[in-house]
Amino acid sequence: MINSESYSKIFEDLLKQSVTLVAVSKTKPADVLLELYNSGQRIFGENKVQEMADKYETLPKDISWHLIGHLQSNKVKYIAGFVSLIHSVDSLKLLKEIDRQAQKNNRVINCLLQFHIAKEESKFGLDYQEATEMLISEDYHKLKNINIIGVMGMASFTEDKAAVRAEFKLLKTIFDSLKKDFFRNKNDFEEISMGMSGDFEIAIEEGATIVRIGSLLFGPK
Ligand SMILES: *Cc1c(COP(=O)(O)O)cnc(C)c1O
C-alpha cells in the first residue's frame, strides 16, 4: 500500500530542490506501481532486466523506466527499445552493446557512468582511471547511439553519516573533473544519481540531482 500523502510530501520537497525522484519499484507487483502512478509518479527504477521488461508491457506507456542495477551485456537487447536512462554503465564493453542495440532500435539511449565509491568490495562501478581510459579511447568516440549525461554511485551501508557524506563528496568531485576534462561543452552532462531511502538528504546536500528511493515509498522489501 502506498501512502499517497507521504509520497506527495517527498515529491514536493524534491521538486522544490529540483531533484528528480526515481521510485525504485524492484520486487513490487505492477498494481502497486500503478497506485504510485495514479498519485502522479512517472519515473520508476528497476534493477532486473526481465522484471522491468514485464512491467513495461503491462503498465502505461508514459512511464520513464530507469535501469539502476548491474546490467549484463547480453541482456541489453530486452530493454533497448524503451529504457529511458541506464544508471549502471561500468565498462566500455557494456557501453558498446548499449550503442549497438540502441542503433537497432533507431534511438539514442541516455546513460550514467557508475562509480565505485563505497568501501564495500561487492559494489559495482568504475574508478576514475578506468573511466578516463574509456573516455579517451577510439572505440568510445565511435559510439553514436549512446549519450552520457552524468554519474551514479552507491554509498556504503553504514550508520556512519560522515563516511556516507565523504563518499557522496567523492562522486561530486568525480563528476566535476569529468565535466571539466571530457564534457565541458556538453550541457546535458549534468546528472548526479546518488542517495537512497536512508541517505538521500545527505546526497542532496552534496549535490545529487537524481535520488533513487524504494523502501521509503513502497515499504521494506
Ligand atoms: C534498491 C536500490 C535503491 C533503493 O533503495 P532503498 O533503500 O529501498 O530506497 C536505490 N538504488 C539502487 C541501485 C538499488 O538497487
- Would you tell me the structural class of the helices and strands? alpha/beta
Shape: globular
Q: Name the beta content range.
A: 15-25%
State the CATH architecture: Alpha-Beta Barrel
Topology overview:
Elements: H1 4-16, E1 20-24, H2 30-38, E2 43-46, H3 49-58, E3 64-67, E4 85-89, H4 92-104, E5 109-115, H5 128-136, H6 138-142, E6 146-153, H7 161-182, E7 191-193, H8 200-205, E8 210-213, H9 215-218
Parallel strand pairs: 1-2, 1-8, 2-3, 3-4, 4-5, 5-6, 6-7
The structure holds pyridoxal-5'-phosphate.
Task: Kindly list the characteristics that best describe this protein.
221 residues, alpha/beta, TIM Barrel, 8-stranded parallel beta sheet, 18% strand, binds pyridoxal-5'-phosphate
